[in-house]
Each structure stands twice: as C-alpha cells, then as structure tokens.
Amino acid sequence: MKWNVLPYALITALSVIAAFIRTYALDMGALVNFWVTVFQIAMLSLVWIVIKTIGNKLNNYLPFEESVVKRTLLQILISLVIITPLYVGFVHIIRGFHLAFMNTAFLAIGTVLFFVLVLFMNLAYNAYFFFREWENSIKEKAQLQIEAAELGKDRSMMKYHHLKNQVNPHFLFNTFTSLDGLIQTDPDLASDFVRHLSKVYRYVLQNKENEVVTLQTEIDFIGHYIRLLKIRYKDTFGIKINISEAALDHEIVMVTLQMLIDNAIKHNSLQVSSPLNVTIWDEGDYLHVRNNKQLRKQIETSNQQGLQQLKELYSFLTDKQVIVNDKAEFFEIKLPLL
C-alpha cells in the first residue's frame, strides 16, 4: 500500500470500528449510523488534507531543520484555527439527526476527543514526513551507491583498456630485433613469426572494445602469442595448458593470459638449465595460472598496476575475487571464470 493512501485507510478503519461501537453502546439505528459514519470519514479525511496542506506549506517557510518544536506548535495552532469552524459545522449537521444521546455532556467529551485526535493527526503527519524523508534518503543513498559503482567500473574499464591498448616498447623492440635476426638466418621461420605477430595484433584490434571473451577465444589467441615467445626464448620458456571442455564456454577478461605470462617473464630469469615454466589449468570455477619462481636480480620498475586493475575490473564482473598465491617456489593467480 502506498504511504499517501495509508492515512485514509486508517481513517476508514477507525470510523468503521466506531460505527460498531455506536451500534451496541448507543443503540443507534443502522441508517443513521451509516450516515454518521460517512460524515465522520469525510470530516476526518478533510482534517487530514488540511493538516497535510498546512505542513507542506510550512516546509517552505519554517522547515523542521530550523526548529522542530516551533514548527510543530505553529502547525498545530494553524490547523486548530482552520479546523475548528469545520468541526462546528460537522456538529451542526450531526445534531440535525436529533439523536437522543447528543446532550451537552456527550458533545463536551466528543469535542475534547476530536481536538485530541487533531493533535494526534498533526503528530502523525510529522512522523509521516520524517519517515518519508528517511525513505527518500535511503533511496537516494542507494542510487548514489549504484552510480558510484558504475563510475568505478567505468574508471576501471578505462584504465584497463588504456593498459590493454598500450604497446610495450620493450616488447616491440625485442620482437623486431628477433625478427631481424630470423630474416637473415631463417626466412621461413621469420615468415611464421610475422604471421603469428599479425594474428596477435589483429585479435587485440578486433576485441579492443570487449570486456570479456570466451576462454576458447582467449586460448586460441594465446596460442599465437606463445608461438612468438617460443621462437624468441626457445628452450628457456615452457608452457602447459590443460583446459576442460566445460570451461572453454566460460568467459574471461580479454588479454588476461597475455598479461600474466608477460608478468612472469618480466619478473623471472629464463635459462636453458632452469627454464621458466607456466602452467594454465581450470579447477572448479577458477582458471589457474602458475609459474615457478626464479626472480631476476634486476627487473623493470613494477608497481603491479596491471594486476590491481585486473582485480578491480573482476570485482565489477563477479562476486568472486581474483586470488593471488605468492609462495617461495611459485607464483599463482586464480581467475574467476565468468
């Protein structure tokens, strides 16, 4: 039930209860009781409308924020000035029924009860006003939280897209250096290298507006990227991928695997005697990416910006967290499958 309808529902319910009481306590006839009840509902509804109108007007001239006591007393005073003539007219109409119980004592008691009811209705309006303000503030707060979350997501997406679309100068330099050497020593392998390199950048360009892609799509892409790494690092780098058929239909944030493999290469040494091994597999609702740790003595400056932005982005896509296991023997990232 809407809050603006509730007061009239309560007035009707109380008037019906009063009608039953009059029937048995005052032995009032059914027809007379019906019309008294109708007048009572009309009168009390009119009183509520007057009080609500006065309250709404005073909200502009003397809001509760300035003084609750002054505002409440002024509202009661104005409502009494306006409602008293209405009550007198109501009593005059009721007395026209020539009811036996309408003596001076009954009218005196009825008048006191009526003005007590007016006082109560003023307080009820105040409670209604404060509750409505509280309800609106809750809705506004919830809306602000939603907007803040959307802004946070947009900000994370912009940062991640910026990171994703950056071309690492070291990667390009090393790639073209490797390509230059291959052109002179192994033209066929150089051609294969260029083919895989073009597919890597075609994938990035074609999906640059996508937040997520299927794991199958990402695995197909990473195959070309791995081929480039194998040509460049040869036996110093190894990778194993073991993904179940069921997991391939799930989604993953685009170029996540490339970022994590690059991160492993960036932080660890690669030697024939001690190759860097990356293992990728799925387990439950997570995709695991693990590499053995053989940290470089000197590495490029790293503030883990990419990993942090990846965590932020996943926080908007799923309730599950990106889990980092940094052990003495290995470094592992667990990515939620979407």
From TrEMBL:
Q: Which residues form the Signal transduction histidine kinase internal region domain?
A: 159-236
Q: Which GO terms describe its molecular function?
A: phosphorelay sensor kinase activity
Q: Where are the transmembrane segments?
A: 5-25, 31-51, 72-94, 106-131
A Gene Ontology cellular component where this protein is annotated is: membrane
Q: Which UniProt keywords apply?
A: Kinase, Membrane, Transferase, Transmembrane, Transmembrane helix
InterPro entries documented for this protein:
Bact_2-comp_sensor_kinase, Sig_transdc_His_kin_internal
Under what name is this protein listed?
A: Histidine kinase
Per the UniProt record, the source organism is Mucilaginibacter terrigena
